[in-house]
Amino acid sequence: MSARTLVVALLGIFMLAGAAGDPAERLTDPKAEGRARALFREVRCLVCQNESIDDSEADLAADLRRVIRREVASGVSDSEVRAFLVARYGKFVLLKPPLDLSTLALWVLPFAALGGGAWLALSRKPSPPPAPLSPEECERLKGLAASPGDGANAA
Asked: Which whole-number Å values give the CA distances from 33 to 14, 22, 29, 47, 79, in the listed order?
Protein backbone atom coordinates (compact mmCIF):
# COMPACT_ATOMS: atom_id res chain seq x y z
CA MET A 1 0.00 0.00 0.00
CA SER A 2 1.42 3.35 -0.97
CA ALA A 3 1.86 6.19 1.48
CA ARG A 4 -0.66 8.30 -0.44
CA THR A 5 -3.36 5.61 -0.19
CA LEU A 6 -2.67 5.24 3.52
CA VAL A 7 -2.98 8.99 4.12
CA VAL A 8 -6.28 9.16 2.19
CA ALA A 9 -7.65 6.17 4.13
CA LEU A 10 -6.67 7.70 7.47
CA LEU A 11 -8.22 11.06 6.54
CA GLY A 12 -11.45 9.26 5.62
CA ILE A 13 -11.51 7.46 8.97
CA PHE A 14 -10.89 10.73 10.86
CA MET A 15 -13.68 12.45 8.92
CA LEU A 16 -16.15 9.67 9.73
CA ALA A 17 -15.14 9.78 13.38
CA GLY A 18 -15.76 13.53 13.45
CA ALA A 19 -19.20 13.15 11.90
CA ALA A 20 -20.25 10.55 14.46
CA GLY A 21 -20.64 13.19 17.19
CA ASP A 22 -19.16 13.58 20.61
CA PRO A 23 -19.28 10.30 22.55
CA ALA A 24 -19.67 12.32 25.75
CA GLU A 25 -23.07 13.48 24.51
CA ARG A 26 -24.39 9.96 24.03
CA LEU A 27 -26.74 8.48 26.58
CA THR A 28 -25.35 5.70 28.76
CA ASP A 29 -28.49 3.57 28.36
CA PRO A 30 -28.27 1.94 24.89
CA LYS A 31 -32.07 1.62 24.65
CA ALA A 32 -32.57 5.34 25.38
CA GLU A 33 -29.80 6.25 22.92
CA GLY A 34 -31.53 4.10 20.30
CA ARG A 35 -34.81 5.96 20.90
CA ALA A 36 -33.02 9.29 20.63
CA ARG A 37 -31.30 8.26 17.39
CA ALA A 38 -34.63 7.14 15.92
CA LEU A 39 -36.07 10.56 16.77
CA PHE A 40 -33.04 12.28 15.19
CA ARG A 41 -33.96 10.64 11.86
CA GLU A 42 -37.52 12.04 12.09
CA VAL A 43 -36.56 15.65 12.80
CA ARG A 44 -35.60 18.09 10.03
CA CYS A 45 -32.50 20.21 10.35
CA LEU A 46 -33.87 23.75 10.25
CA VAL A 47 -30.64 25.02 8.70
CA CYS A 48 -30.16 22.38 5.99
CA GLN A 49 -33.94 21.84 5.58
CA ASN A 50 -33.66 18.61 3.60
CA GLU A 51 -31.62 16.60 6.08
CA SER A 52 -32.43 15.00 9.36
CA ILE A 53 -30.60 16.26 12.42
CA ASP A 54 -28.95 12.83 12.51
CA ASP A 55 -27.19 13.61 9.21
CA SER A 56 -26.58 17.33 9.71
CA GLU A 57 -23.46 18.92 11.14
CA ALA A 58 -25.10 22.33 11.70
CA ASP A 59 -24.84 23.83 15.18
CA LEU A 60 -28.64 24.00 15.48
CA ALA A 61 -28.87 20.28 14.65
CA ALA A 62 -26.37 19.53 17.42
CA ASP A 63 -28.45 21.64 19.82
CA LEU A 64 -31.62 19.75 18.83
CA ARG A 65 -29.84 16.41 19.35
CA ARG A 66 -28.87 17.53 22.87
CA VAL A 67 -32.46 18.63 23.60
CA ILE A 68 -33.86 15.31 22.39
CA ARG A 69 -31.30 13.32 24.40
CA ARG A 70 -32.13 15.38 27.50
CA GLU A 71 -35.87 14.77 27.01
CA VAL A 72 -35.40 11.03 26.40
CA ALA A 73 -33.11 10.72 29.42
CA SER A 74 -35.73 12.41 31.60
CA GLY A 75 -38.28 9.76 30.61
CA VAL A 76 -40.40 11.75 28.15
CA SER A 77 -42.17 9.62 25.53
CA ASP A 78 -41.37 9.89 21.82
CA SER A 79 -44.74 11.46 21.04
CA GLU A 80 -44.19 14.07 23.78
CA VAL A 81 -40.76 14.91 22.33
CA ARG A 82 -42.31 15.35 18.88
CA ALA A 83 -45.10 17.50 20.36
CA PHE A 84 -42.52 19.67 22.15
CA LEU A 85 -40.55 20.19 18.93
CA VAL A 86 -43.69 20.96 16.90
CA ALA A 87 -44.89 23.43 19.56
CA ARG A 88 -41.53 25.19 19.45
CA TYR A 89 -40.69 25.05 15.71
CA GLY A 90 -43.93 24.15 13.93
CA LYS A 91 -44.84 21.06 11.90
CA PHE A 92 -42.05 21.88 9.45
CA VAL A 93 -39.55 20.43 11.93
CA LEU A 94 -40.85 16.92 11.21
CA LEU A 95 -39.49 15.26 8.07
CA LYS A 96 -42.83 13.47 7.68
CA PRO A 97 -45.55 15.89 8.79
CA PRO A 98 -48.75 14.31 10.14
CA LEU A 99 -51.81 14.05 7.91
CA ASP A 100 -54.29 16.66 9.14
CA LEU A 101 -56.25 19.56 7.70
CA SER A 102 -53.31 21.98 7.71
CA THR A 103 -50.98 19.55 5.91
CA LEU A 104 -53.55 17.99 3.60
CA ALA A 105 -52.20 19.87 0.58
CA LEU A 106 -48.70 18.50 1.22
CA TRP A 107 -50.04 14.95 1.05
CA VAL A 108 -52.65 15.32 -1.70
CA LEU A 109 -51.08 17.70 -4.26
CA PRO A 110 -48.30 15.36 -5.47
CA PHE A 111 -50.81 12.60 -6.17
CA ALA A 112 -53.27 15.04 -7.75
CA ALA A 113 -50.54 16.42 -10.02
CA LEU A 114 -49.49 12.93 -11.02
CA GLY A 115 -53.09 11.90 -11.69
CA GLY A 116 -53.80 15.10 -13.63
CA GLY A 117 -50.71 14.60 -15.79
CA ALA A 118 -51.68 11.00 -16.50
CA TRP A 119 -55.23 12.06 -17.36
CA LEU A 120 -53.95 14.74 -19.75
CA ALA A 121 -51.54 12.31 -21.40
CA LEU A 122 -54.17 9.62 -21.84
CA SER A 123 -57.04 11.90 -22.90
CA ARG A 124 -55.23 13.63 -25.76
CA LYS A 125 -56.69 12.71 -29.10
CA PRO A 126 -54.16 11.86 -31.77
CA SER A 127 -53.82 14.49 -34.47
CA PRO A 128 -55.51 13.53 -37.76
CA PRO A 129 -53.27 12.30 -40.55
CA PRO A 130 -52.32 14.94 -43.12
CA ALA A 131 -54.67 15.36 -46.08
CA PRO A 132 -53.51 13.67 -49.29
CA LEU A 133 -51.90 15.84 -51.96
CA SER A 134 -54.08 17.18 -54.73
CA PRO A 135 -53.21 16.16 -58.34
CA GLU A 136 -51.76 19.64 -58.95
CA GLU A 137 -49.53 19.35 -55.89
CA CYS A 138 -48.36 15.90 -57.03
CA GLU A 139 -47.38 17.28 -60.47
CA ARG A 140 -45.55 20.21 -58.91
CA LEU A 141 -43.69 17.84 -56.55
CA LYS A 142 -42.65 15.64 -59.50
CA GLY A 143 -41.38 18.73 -61.32
CA LEU A 144 -39.38 19.86 -58.33
CA ALA A 145 -37.82 16.42 -57.91
CA ALA A 146 -36.90 16.24 -61.60
CA SER A 147 -35.40 19.72 -61.96
CA PRO A 148 -31.67 20.15 -61.26
CA GLY A 149 -30.48 22.54 -58.54
CA ASP A 150 -31.99 23.41 -55.18
CA GLY A 151 -35.55 23.88 -56.40
CA ALA A 152 -35.68 27.58 -55.54
CA ASN A 153 -36.48 28.56 -59.15
CA ALA A 154 -39.37 26.09 -59.58
CA ALA A 155 -42.02 28.24 -57.90
From this structure: 23, 13, 6, 24, 16
